[in-house]
Amino acid sequence: MSLRTLLGASILLRITLLLYGLYQDYTSPLKYTDIDYYVFTDASRYLLTNSNNASTLTPYSRETYRYTPLLAWLLLPTALNPQFLFFSFGKIIFAAADVLAGWLIYVVLTNRGMDSQRAGWFAGIWLVNPMVATISTRGSSEGLLGVLVVGIVWAVLRRRVLLAGVLVGLATHFKIYPVIYAPTVVWWLESEGSGGSEGESGKGWFEKAIGFVNRERVIFGTWALGTFVGLNVWMYKLYASPFLQHTYLHHLSRVDHRHNFSPYNTLLHLTSSPMGHSSTPFGSIPFLPQLLLSGLVIPLAFAKHDLPVTMFAQTFAFVSFNKVCTSQYFMWYIVLLPFYLPGSVLLRRPWLGGVALVLWAVSQAVWLEQGYELEFLGKATFVPGLWVASLLFFAVNVWLLGIIVGDIRRRGDLA
Amino acid sequence: MKQRSTFIVSESHGTLPENFSLKKDTFIIKALPPSTVREDRVTFSLHELPAEIQDVLSSCREVHLKLTSGDIYEFIDPYSSRTPAGLHVFLSSEQGASPDSICQLLEKVFGINNCWGFKSSFIEIPGGYQFYSPLRSASTFVQYLQNHLSEKDTLRRSEVQSLESAEYIDVIYDAIAQTLVLSSVHAPNQPKWDGSSITSAKTSGVELGVFGNITPMEEEGLTLAGFITELGESDDFEPTMFSFASRHHRSESTFSLATARPAGLHPRLRLSIHGTAKPPPNAGDECTLNAYFTLPVALFIDKYQLSSDNQQLLDSLNIKRIKAISGETDLEAPVWTREKWGSRVLVEVDTKGGENGIELELPLHLRYLEPRYNGTTTKVDFAWPSVFWACRSEQWKMMAVNPFDRLHLGWEDLFPEQVMYYYLSPAPHGEGEGAWSSIDVPVLGLENAEMIKIGTVTVVGLGFLWVLFKIFMAKLSSVREKKELKRE
């Protein structure tokens, strides 16, 4: 697919969905706009009220605002009047970020030598994906993360290390999880010439350690850490402990007892209640396999071989092993899928790809059906229904992750 | 101790003296129309109360406690005010003091189990604190009172026993007066009073009044006519007639509450106003129709979802606006992390197009309830709201002189003082449940606890090992490939 057609189609798709959303919001009590979007825009409005009245409203005055204040600042125009003109500003930003991310995917793919036709098809997985377009036009901020993450890939591959560092710092400030990309980038940025194991085998650990520290790694690390710390210090100065509590600490201490796709969901629901309390720290154990895999083992094993695919595998592991998981989390790895898919075993053996897709979708559908029975019919499907369904979905994800990590080095020619 | 008993009869012949007889210190009821409402009001001095009650009251300035049965009954002015069924406590504390042991006392006296501590369970409202429990019966209260009476005091014991059938019981403590007033109102015909008597003990005086409502002499006012007497003091009935402005009135309309089925985790309450939803005649133009809910902590409304920004949704629900929500409003926390009793919600009903009744829908959400043994559902009880017209009145200053006035019903702080209330009567579709509803809430069965722990850990552990194994195999084969490359 040519880039022009693709971008045209993806923009048209988003404009259509935006307009449809306006129509549905105007005519139906059931809103197209995502609940989180009201949270963001309320937070922005509080900011504006604040500057007018000198009262003490902050974005965190809005319950369940658990994001960086940068997001509320970015969406400040949504608080302007007339509302019918400005309210959707944030959705436009998100959708534009989406399209930009897709364009960057295309750029990265062609830079790696893929012909533009083929790159168009793979970028299309993100660009004309109805799920992606719907999520961002409903006002979910995942598109911003998407563009930051693909931006990291682009910057690192172009050896724009400083920019990559800033992006990793910014993305981590935004949503914490992109911190897992830092070790990957660091590992990947080896000194030119020292690549491969030749010549290294004779060196002692000291020389190896010295050799590990190179200019690019230092620049990347400094800017990543600097951006992250700088933004946090700045925000902390402005909003103090509510910022720290809602943006970060909440995610460490949160107990996601309400049903979601995570395999831990039923366990946490059980053990967070006084009657089901357990002396085993089930609330923190899940971090261990998750961070080991996504933050350490996968980057160390594959980063030097293929950066974007490693990032895809990491993200897939992170989401699959996460304590909480909703369909928005799938966006985190779908944005990196176009880097893995070309030449992967899922395409080399189409039947395997087909089975994987069907299993991924069906196990999700099984869970959704059980979730529907609980949420809307009031049936107690916690056990076995939702529990088994989430473990099943986890098993499918882990099976797929096994295929992906086994495949990273075997992937065929990109072109 | 002082007692005041009042009978309000709706038929004019009810107040005729020949229906009663008076013998020294005993008043005997020979025949009363079945539609009679009876109120008994007993005033205690602080020192007459048990020490544990005195102890709690010593840190309170005012306490207003209301226990409403939720039974369906026909009400008569001036006893027409209604709170949602259950136990309501409003209190204001003395400066710097906090009645920390009030929860133990409430648990002992009323048998409630959702009060964990004054600071943690009471919610703050303008001018004080509020607590609520969806308590259905006064039996523990009656038991508690009887434990403080001697076995021989059969007269008092039977009076106390009758509290169990009261429509509502009010307990009012006032630190300035140093008195505690216990009053109970019995609805018509329940039980029949014929043949019963009221006797004054040596230690207490008893005032009696039997009245009927007659055509009010003033608009917005009530006029009662009948007789009064004081046992032991006078031996005759003294004809009386008096008028007063009343804060509370009855409205002719009725309402009912239903829950859309299946309720799921987002129950929708349907409040139906039957008949024409028009302000009461003579009430002036400045009237609003309101529903006041006391929601137990398991249920909550999302104030953002129902904010006035979302006019579309409010219109479709026939809600004019949510006037107030206070108390436990967290949007996601499970019940077991919450200690407050719940939340109070005042909804203004949209009366547009209400010629043939109104259907209002209030979308609620459920918190996760504690996992439990035995069964995978548990019932959450909640009371029907108080539904009333609130109308601006010019006579509000006179309301204070009403000997039957009732205050601290839960919503007064949300209205200006110069307002009169006109209450709609609950009219359930079925029998037996009264002004109560309940919904079945799915819960996680604790029987499965071990299986969940072992199963989850096993599956996640195996998955983790599987991925590690695949990564190891991938590295291994790449190392082999490199060696082979070198050999070549």
From TrEMBL, chain A:
Keywords in alphabetical order: Endoplasmic reticulum, Glycosyltransferase, GPI-anchor biosynthesis, Membrane, Transferase, Transmembrane, Transmembrane helix
Pathway named in the protein's UniProt entry: Glycolipid biosynthesis; glycosylphosphatidylinositol-anchor biosynthesis
Annotated membrane topology: Multi-pass membrane protein
One of the protein's GO biological processes: GPI anchor biosynthetic process
Record Pfam families: Mannosyl_trans
Gene Ontology MF terms in the entry: alpha-1,4-mannosyltransferase activity; GPI mannosyltransferase activity
Residues passing through the membrane, by range: 5-23, 84-107, 119-135, 141-157, 218-236, 282-303, 351-368, 380-405
Keyword Membrane (UniProt): yes
Main location: endoplasmic reticulum
EC code(s) of this entry: 2.4.1.-
Gene Ontology CC annotations of this record: endoplasmic reticulum membrane; glycosylphosphatidylinositol-mannosyltransferase I complex
Family note: Belongs to the PIGM family.
PANTHER family: GPI MANNOSYLTRANSFERASE 1, PIG-M MANNOSYLTRANSFERASE
Designated name of the protein: GPI mannosyltransferase 1
Natural source organism: Tuber borchii (White truffle)
Automatic annotation (TrEMBL), chain B:
Keywords: Endoplasmic reticulum, Glycoprotein, GPI-anchor biosynthesis, Membrane, Transmembrane, Transmembrane helix
Family matches, as Pfam families: PIG-X (PF08320)
Coiled coil: none
Pathway(s) the chain acts in: Glycolipid biosynthesis; glycosylphosphatidylinositol-anchor biosynthesis
Record GO biological process: GPI anchor biosynthetic process
Membrane topology according to the record: Single-pass membrane protein; Single-pass type III membrane protein
InterPro entries in the record: Pbn1, PIG-X/PBN1
Compartment(s) of residence: Endoplasmic reticulum membrane
Keyword Endoplasmic reticulum: yes
TM annotation in the entry: 454-473
GO MF annotation, one: mannosyltransferase activity
Single GO cellular component term: endoplasmic reticulum membrane
Family the entry assigns: Belongs to the PIGX family.
Its job: Required for proper folding and/or the stability of a subset of proteins in the endoplasmic reticulum. Component of glycosylphosphatidylinositol-mannosyltransferase 1 which transfers the first of the 4 mannoses in the GPI-anchor precursors during GPI-anchor biosynthesis. Probably acts by stabilizing the mannosyltransferase GPI14.
Protein name as annotated: Protein PBN1
Species assigned in the record: Tuber borchii
